[in-house]
Amino acid sequence: MHEAPTLNALLIQNEVRQAFGWSEADDAESALQLQRFLQYHDRWSLLHREKALKRVTKQLLNAQRVIIIGAGVEENELKQYTQPGDVFVAADGAVGALQGYSQLACIVSDLDGGDYLDAAAKQGQTIVVHAHGDNVQQWQKTLTSWEQCTPFPPLILTHQVNQPIPGMHNFGGFTDGDRALCFVLSLGCVPKTIELVGFSLNRVGQWSGVTVAETKLKKLEWMERIVSELGFGHFIKK
Asked: In 10 A of CB 200, how many CB atoms?
């Protein structure tokens, strides 16, 4: 049984790998290394990660609106989301657009969000950490750094391979933004309660991490396809 909101949200990961010439074996090795890295961790153990997922799930299911923040968001776009029932899910560095974390459920990230992501982690915000073939050194460096944080950032682990990995999840999707959408749908959020802000097809957002612009724009085409297939394409700026 797949965890993604649709089977195609998983199958598209194979298409992405083929398009970019990436290896599923590399994706799997990164995920398995991350699993082993945290297997006996006192505060990032499986039990702690399960508690984090349950807490985030409850927060999102109780929300009146779930707002997913993409890297192209402008700070003034978030001013309309001030109601008590509004809850944010940020895609990586887009968390920097928030003035505070009181409405933030979690950040979905492959850990290239830079200072904005670090700042949130150091305030104990929950991070949905994604492992893929070319971010092994990044997650090793980042998680080693976060081990020193007080308060401690809770973690949920995701991967993108066609095999079950205990203690990790494949919610589907590819970029942090569309993976965040897959994540909230997989948890059971009602589609009509979900809004996307800061999703753009033709430009690299100001909150994006270190990236090659040409490659990023190609990735955004896959983001558009995934988001559109899930029924949220009208939120994308073109």
From this structure: 18
Q: What are phi and psi of 99, to 5 degrees?
A: -80, -20
Instruction: Name the H helices within the chain.
Output: 7-20, 24-38, 46-61, 114-121, 136-146, 176-186, 213-229
Q: What is the DSSP letter of 36?
A: H
Per-residue pLDDT tens over the stretch 181-218: 999 999 999 999 999 999 998 766 565 655 556 777 89
What's the Rg (C-alpha) of the chain? Answer: 16
Q: What angle do CA 225, 163, 144 make, to 5 degrees?
A: 85
Which domains does the chain possess?
7-235 (3.90.1480)
For residues 188 and 174, give the distance between their C-alpha atoms in angstroms, rounded to a whole number.
19
